[in-house]
Amino acid sequence: MKAWILIILISMIPFQMSKGAQLIDCEKHPIYCQIIKNQPRINKKFAMQVSNIIYHVAVSYSISTDIYTAILMQESG
């Protein structure tokens, strides 16, 4: 019985990956992951562009990226 469950789960892996799911390392892209957590239905490509902008602005003005992301979320919400 357990073998059938395992076969079904393994057969679903290519289907799930073919949906365009991208695996993003949240240790490498914490701003992107925070944006996705705050707004799950956002366009993933747009979220990555926004996270890059947030990073560059935060570094330019010596602001914590976490605080800056939280401020932007609060102001846009």
Summarize the structure.
By secondary structure, this protein is mainly alpha-helical. 70% of the residues lie in helices and 0% in strands.
Describe the structure.
- With 77 residues, this protein is an all-alpha fold.
- It has one domain (22-76).
- Helix content is 70%, strand content 0%.
- The protein is globular and about 30 Å long.
- The protein starts with a helix and ends with a helix.
- Mean pLDDT is 77; it is low at 13-20.
The main β sheet shows up as: none
Structural class by sheet pairing and helices: mainly alpha
Which parts are unreliable, with pLDDT below 50 for 5 consecutive residues or more?
13-20
Fraction of residues in β-strands: under 5%
What's the N-to-C terminus distance?
A: 49 Å
- Average pLDDT for all residues: 77
Q: Tell me the number of helical segments per DSSP (H or I, 4 or more residues long).
A: 4
Give the overall silhouette.
globular
Find the count of extended strands (DSSP E, 2+ residues): 0
Order of helices and strands: HHHH
Portion of residues within helices = over 70%
**Count of separate structural domains:** 1
Question: What's the Cα radius of gyration?
Answer: 17 Å
Helices and strands, with pairings:
Blueprint lengths: L1 H16 L12 H9 L5 H17 L4 H12 L1
Helix pairs in contact: 2-3, 2-4
Provide key terms for this protein:
single chain, 77 residues, mainly alpha, 70% helix, globular
